[in-house]
Design a protein that fits this description.
Number of domains: 2
CATH superfamily of the largest domain: P-loop containing nucleotide triphosphate hydrolases
Shape: elongated
Strand order of the largest sheet: 6-7-8-3-9-10
Order of helices and strands: EEEHEEHEHHHHEHEHEEHEEEHEH
Structural class: alpha/beta
Bound molecules: adenosine-5'-triphosphate
Number of strands: 14
Length: about 325
């Protein structure tokens, strides 16, 4: 059974096709990165998976349950970190956790969840309305973890976190994955997705343009990295048959070997040395993740702000599930 399975999932707002006929399968146990520039349709897709909004056409199942007709079964099994937490400002972090544990039927204690997300007890006793953005993100993540969900849906989870917080969040995702939880990780920041995800789907203007591993994306996009070698003399070079090498050129007196697989670097150098060619020096120029993002979306990733601003939604922001909200 797939953790997420969508068929022609579509959401249209007037003339805007926010999500355009997505067919996507996320296997159980995988960490799947859902990547796309701002406005690509990531949050809209997630909102349809959790029945916060209804598709215009198409359907989806989550953990084998119909996303529209078996919503309770879905929400009971899914932990959600929404883009823009719907918390109760005057209620404490601790109270939010108690509520999340109670409504998810969890057996953990609030303190255990606080530990996992790096929030201390003192902060947990303050009203969440006083929290910084990073603290809000942490308490929301803790709520999402309550009840040991089978699927974690994280919408821009690093939003508001500092570099240490981002690393801790990635570690949490790895821990969850190691314990068998499927993780659906949405972000517009490729580096964060690639750090934790087994596969990545790239969404652009509502369309799922590709689904692959990061390595597969590199190869398919044909944006390899380059090995620049300074060699003695002007030898004839034949690197045909070296796995991962996609081309050999000369530039400014150097030999430039293009490759899509990092293991090709050492193999190419060995081949040259075996052929009696003197390798005086070498350096590598790696294709960046930004190059990759740009190749698929036409969006200059460097110019995409690290924004956590979501487009509007049909419904008010949702509290982290398995939660309906944490009343006072
Ligand atoms: N309620 C709505 N009414 C009209 N248009 C909407 C509504 N909600 C979303 N949209 C539009 O749908 C498109 C997809 O928005 P969505 O929020 O899903 O993108 P996103 O990929 O999550 O973006 P971000 O990374 O900025 O959060 C955008 O063009 C957005 O303006």
């Amino acid at each position: 059974m797939a953790a997420i399975d969508t068929t022609n999932l579509t959401k249209q707002y007037g003339d805007v096709v926010a999500v355009d006929g997505i067919d996507l399968i996320v296997e159980e146990g995988e960490v799947f990165g859902f990547l796309g520039p701002n406005g690509a349709g990531k949050t809209t897709t997630i909102d349809m998976l959790l029945d916060f909004i209804r598709p215009t056409t198409g359907s989806a199942t989550v953990l084998g349950y119909d996303a529209q007709t078996e919503t309770d079964a879905v929400r009971d099994r899914v932990g959600i970190l929404p883009d823009g937490a719907g918390l109760y400002d005057r209620s404490t972090g601790y109270r939010h956790l108690e509520f999340a544990i109670e409504s998810s039927g969890g057996t953990e204690t609030p303190d255990e969840l606080l530990d996992r997300v790096g929030l201390d007890r003192e902060d947990a006793e303050r009203p969440v309305g006083d929290y910084s953005k990073g603290m809000t993100q942490r308490i929301t993540m803790a709520m999402a973890l309550a009840g040991d969900p089978d699927l974690l849906v994280l919408d821009e989870p690093s939003s508001g976190l500092d570099p240490i917080g981002i690393r801790e969040m990635q570690e949490l995702v790895r821990e969850e994955a190691a314990s068998g939880t499927t993780v659906f990780f949405s972000s517009h920041i490729l580096g964060q997705v690639s750090a934790v995800c087994d596969r990545v789907g790239i969404l652009d203007e509502g369309e799922l343009v590709t689904v692959d591993t990061i390595q597969g994306l590199r190869e398919a996009a044909g944006i390899g990295s380059r090995l620049v070698l300074e060699v003695g003399g002007d030898p004839t070079v034949d690197l045909s048959g070296v796995d991962g090498v996609t081309g050999v050129d000369r530039a400014d007196g150097s030999l430039v070997v293009s490759y899509t697989d990092a293991s090709a670097k050492a193999a190419a150098i060995h081949r040259l040395v075996d052929a009696g060619i003197e390798v005086l020096d070498f350096s590598t120029e790696e294709a960046t993740l930004e190059d990759l993002f740009e190749a698929y979306t036409g969006t200059d990733a460097a110019a995409v702000p690290d924004s956590d601003t979501a487009a509007g939604s049909e419904t008010p922001p949702q509290a982290a599930a398995n939660v309906g909200g944490a009343g006072e």
